[in-house]
Amino acid sequence: MVEHDKSGERASVGRRLIIGGARSGKTAHAIALAKSLSAARGVNVTYVATAQALDQEMQHRISLHRAERPATWRTLEAPTGLAQALPGEESSNIVVIDCMTLWLSNALLQDFREDAPTAPLPTWEAERDKFLQWLSLARVEVLLISNEVGMGIVPLAPVARRFQDEQGRLNQMLAAACDQVTLVVAGIAVPIKSFRAG
Hints:
Elements: E1 2-4, E2 10-12, E3 15-20, H1 26-41, E4 45-49, H2 56-68, E5 74-77, H3 82-85, E6 94-98, H4 100-111, H5 122-137, E7 141-147, H6 158-177, E8 180-185, E9 188-193
Parallel strand pairs: 3-7, 3-8, 4-5, 4-6, 6-7
Antiparallel strand pairs: 1-2, 8-9
Helix pairs in contact: 4-5, 5-6
């Protein structure tokens, strides 16, 4: 999909997945990219936060993230019901979702049972499917931030193993649905899937 920026030049509009490990610099990369795209196109940015401030540590982390982004950006909090929260964002031309990992965790924990670790997760499955449908139809630039959690050891706890499995599957689905995928390692953005010419 294409639109024109302020200069009349063609500008790609699509779906971008920015993935990396903890403290890899993926959020900083996404914010810098959104700033650049916003300035070039003269469009608005909505930052969608999926974190929940359930304790002092998370409150501190959220405050640090808030300080990193421009005060002019609109912030939308959607720890759950992500797809339902997004349709009204067509007024923004760039949507940054930070992050897919916390959103998954919030939904997964609603249904996970220690005594049945491989049982279906209806809340998560419904959330995931609705979001993927929204993503396929979105007419805005979408920047998705997600964690790569599968490059370490297999966790000991059943809930952590299930989370790792679901995160890996989600990342594959997002990568397939996105036009561009960037892996961020030690603050360095490495493109692993690029926009197709056309």
